[in-house]
Design brief:
- Helices cover 31% and strands 12% of the residues.
- The chain is an alpha+beta fold.
- The protein folds into 2 domains: 101 residues, no CATH class; 86 residues, no CATH class.
- It is elongated and about 110 Å long.
């Protein structure tokens, strides 16, 4: 809540103005790393319209046969394709400034451009809402989030396809509870082991691990694990990436709040 001042405008107050820092200092917004990751990596689509988004999926394989001579071959047709459908989601935020206030906020009396500052605040508010929804689960008119697309259960209905009955649509998951900094194996942290297992499962399915998105608390445990290993700490002190020991592959760690 904005504070109220109560000066008596006598000679001293009338003769001397305040020293005003015209810069607006952000004390409301955070770093929205999950959304920034998608924007920087080009993980977004730009199109010109359409009522829904249709994605065509290759969901099954045919059956190859070994044969010799005149062996009869199967003539059964295959149906390896289907489609997922996604609704478009829209986000907006109003910028409201009446003419009287806009006129008064002009000329030499202007401390900072109120309309421009309201626009900057609106943009950051929009990014905040999208980042939070990206990390959450879809409700009402919000968009699908990580908790829908990468569900802990590994199953659910996304794009109209129920992965409980269409197993090809299940996401990879690791369900064994672990304490990140516990060393179940000598000099190997359980958290890193769990990450490696899940990344390997993604690669087995033809995927590519672009980044690890996690909470600030798990990211802190990750840094603790690294700092406890002196040879790692020196090499990683200025980075926020994780290295695959087998392939020397660097994976960015993105921590964000939702």
């Amino acid at each position: 809540m904005a504070q109220t001042t109560s000066e008596v405008w006598d000679s001293r107050w009338s003769a001397t103005r305040r020293t005003i820092n015209a810069e607006t200092i952000d004390n409301a917004f955070e770093a929205y790393n999950a959304l920034a990751f998608h924007r920087k990596r080009g993980m977004q689509m730009v199109d010109g319209g359409g009522k829904e988004i249709q994605v065509i999926l290759e969901s099954s394989t045919g059956t190859a046969e070994a044969f010799d001579g005149y062996d009869p071959l199967s003539k059964s047709p295959v149906d390896p394709f289907e489609s997922a459908f996604y609704k478009r989601r829209y986000y907006a935020i109003p910028i409201v400034l009446d003419d009287t206030t806009a006129w008064e906020n002009s000329g030499e009396e202007q401390v900072f451009d109120l309309l421009e500052a309201l626009g900057s605040n609106a943009l950051n508010s929009l990014l905040k809402a999208i980042n939070e929804d990206l990390l959450g689960a879809q409700t009402g008119k919000t968009m699908l989030g990580y908790q829908d697309l990468i569900a802990d259960a590994g199953t659910g209905t996304v794009g109209g396809i129920n992965s409980s009955t269409s197993s090809f649509w299940q996401n990879q998951k690791y369900t064994t509870a672990k304490t990140f900094t516990t060393q179940g194996t000598t000099n190997v942290f359980d958290g890193l082991l769990a990450w490696n297992t899940l990344m390997d499962d993604c690669r087995k399915q033809g995927g590519r691990n672009n980044a690890l998105v996690t909470t600030y608390s798990i990211a802190a445990a990750y840094r603790t694990a690294l700092s406890s290993r002196p040879t790692w700490a020196r090499s990683w002190s200025l980075t926020t990436t994780a290295r695959r020991s087998t392939r020397m592959r660097w994976i960015p760690i993105r921590s964000s709040s939702g």
